[in-house]
Amino acid sequence: MAAKHKRSKRWFIVSLVVLLGASFSAFVLTEPFASAQPKTTFLYARPAQALALSWPSYGEAAIGASGDGVLATHGSDTPLPTASVAKVLTALAILKQAPLTLNSSGPIITLTQADIDSYNKYLAENGSVVKVVVGEQISEYQALEAMLMPSANNMAETLARWAFGSIADYNTYANNYALQLGMTNTIITDPSGFLGSTVSTPHDLVVLGEAALDNPIIAQIVAKTSATIPVQGTIANVNVLLGHEGIVGIKTGNNDQDQGCFLFASRQTIGSQPVTVVGVIMNGPNLGTAMWDALPLISSTAASFHDLNIVNTGTSIATYTTAWGDQGSIVPQNNLSILAWNSVAITTSLSLNKLTAPLSAGSNVGTLTVSNTTSNASYRVPLILRNAIKEPSLFWKFTHSL
Q: Which candidate, 384, 395, 394, 400, places its Cα nearest to that of 328?
């Protein structure tokens, strides 16, 4: 019995050793091995640069760019009468209420005596109008053309009544909508901007201009030099600067309270990058002066952007060395260039994944993020392995797993 017991005990010990050995081998063969933390070899930073913008010597102004928001303001940025620039908000509100697609004229509006009354009212007050008659049928698109191109005050009221039921209901909607757009210092008291009580700031009007250009219908209309509508016939765009200094719109304005208000957009190419500059000049001595003073402001704004080449494919962003001696680089998947505004500082940051063997060359292992410190706009490029990370040898695994 004693011998049998000893054999059983030896068998148990042998079995346990075999089992532990097998378990250890399985663990060694399947355990993921993390590499050493990568060492950063690339970071980019550019401090803010000085601006030299050609601001007008009067009134208030602001400049921005599509996608970047408002970049700079000039003057006190206090609310001033918008004049007919308010019609841009009217157009956006109408298109929210009754959306159109490109190449669609939209529903037909049949004019009534109320529309004739609007015409006669503005005609008597020397406001901008287009001719209308009772029973006239005009499409929504044509009505928007009449409002935005020759700046017809009467058509602004026609559209507001048609879309919202009354001028009062339009005003309520427009004020709420302005807040939604981020126009926190804007007050709307009429759809045409003829009243001096309709006010805004340069900051808010640049926000409005950027929102309007994002609407393809408005962008298309404000870039037209002429169009044809019922009754009036041919209408011309009062923005005579279309095509100058890349100007593609958007709205002029002048009334007794603000004799020179010009909201403009200009398409520029900076290096290899396109940018749409959006700006406004308010409270000019007259409309012509405000419009022509927009040209040097556009030119100096374009000169204050730079096309920065941040990193190229193949540039080493970080290097790594594994515990078992493999070495390699982490590189961007593609080139990254950004359009930078001078007064904005540029910084970069890395987000790297834990590197676990094995990983093939080209594996995505993180992100390089470029940010500007003013608007927090960011640009990202994926990071990949230039070299594969191979598994360690069996010998290394066994000798480094204890």
A: 384
